[in-house]
Structure formats: C-alpha cells, structure tokens
Design brief:
Elements: H1 28-44, H2 47-53, E1 60-62, E2 72-78, E3 84-97, E4 101-103, E5 123-124, E6 126-133, E7 138-144, H3 145-158, E8 179-181
Parallel strand pairs: 4-8
Antiparallel strand pairs: 1-2, 2-3, 3-6, 4-5, 6-7
C-alpha cells in the first residue's frame, strides 16, 4: 500500500526528470504499480483510511511522485457535473487542446508540495488525451474545466514540470488571457 512516506517532496530530483515511455503491453510490475497508485488516490479520499494512515487527500498521482521514472498516472475524482473519472493510464499524451484557458480560483495543490503556493495556474480549458488504461485498452478522453486541469497537472509531472512553474512570477494573481475559472 502506498502511503505519504512513499511520496517524494519538492526538491527531489525525480520530480524534475522527464519520465520514460512504458513499453506496451505493460509488465505485471508496471500494472501492479499503477493499480496501487489508483488505490492510493481512492484511499486518500476515504476519511477513515486517511486518519488511520495519515494520508493527504488527492485527486491524482503521477509515477515520478513515488520515484518511478515512468509515464504512468492515476486519477480519481468527480467533477462539478457529478461525472466520475477513475483511471490508471500508461503513456498519456495530450493530442489537442483549446485556445481558451482556465484556472482554479483557489489555486492548485500537490501531494509533493507541503506548502501553500499562492497564484493562478493557467491551463487549457479543453484537452483531448490518448493513453492506454489498466486493461490494456487504448482510450481517448475529451476533458474540460476541472478534469482538464487535473490531467494537465499529472501529465506535467511526467515532463518534470511542477504546477507552480506556470504561475506568473511578477503577479501570481494575474488572470490568464482568455481564461475562465473552472470552479464557478
């Protein structure tokens, strides 16, 4: 079981590396790791399990955050329209995105960052991604608003990018051009 002790924190070199592509079909070890990552996210949203194991709630986790240099991510959340997203994905790739931008008015957080980072993180409002799921099926997901933000945050981890790299250094609360808040 993955716990907060397994999550590397900012400053760890794994968070700044570009992750390696996972050979498909994935090995049993890769599939097990990704399944454990998805279970961690589900566990982190269960109050009782959080209390018992000292977990911080999260909606996504990328393999570099557990010091595994592979293009794997797990997400589990429900958006504002009550649509559930629960995926373990190998080699996710953004294949298209909107010009229109979005952001969370409360800012973003990260399981690998133990501090508040003020500011808006501009993201594409709509993205389409392709990936391979835990069943070995190719999936194509069209995402918008909060879902789009979550997936972009995790894919950034696969490219060695932290969410705060996107915050305007001079004016953290400068509204991104042509952006609408995702959490309205």
């Amino acid at each position: 079981m993955i716990t907060m002790e397994d999550i590397v924190r900012e400053g760890h070199p794994a968070l700044r590396k570009k992750a390696e592509t996972v050979a498909l079909p994935p090995t049993e070890e890769d599939t097990n790791t990704l399944s454990e990552m998805l279970q961690f996210i589900k566990n982190s949203q269960d109050e009782e399990v959080c209390d018992r194991y000292g977990l911080r709630p999260g909606v996504g986790l990328a393999a570099p955050q557990i010091d595994v240099n592979k293009r794997m991510l797990a997400v589990h959340f429900t958006d504002l329209n009550e649509k559930e997203y629960s995926y373990g994905l190998f080699n996710p790739k953004i294949i298209s995105h909107s010009v229109e931008m979005t952001y969370l008015s409360t800012g973003e957080g990260c399981l690998s960052v133990d501090r508040e980072v003020p500011g808006y993180v501009p993201r594409y409002r709509r993205i389409t991604i392709k990936a391979t799921d835990l069943n070995g099926e190719e999936v194509k997901l069209r995402l918008k608003d909060f879902a789009s933000i979550v997936f972009q945050h995790e894919i950034d981890h696969l490219n060695g990018v932290m969410f705060y790299d996107h915050i305007n250094k001079e004016d953290p609360y400068a509204l991104p051009e042509n952006a609408v808040p995702a959490d309205r």
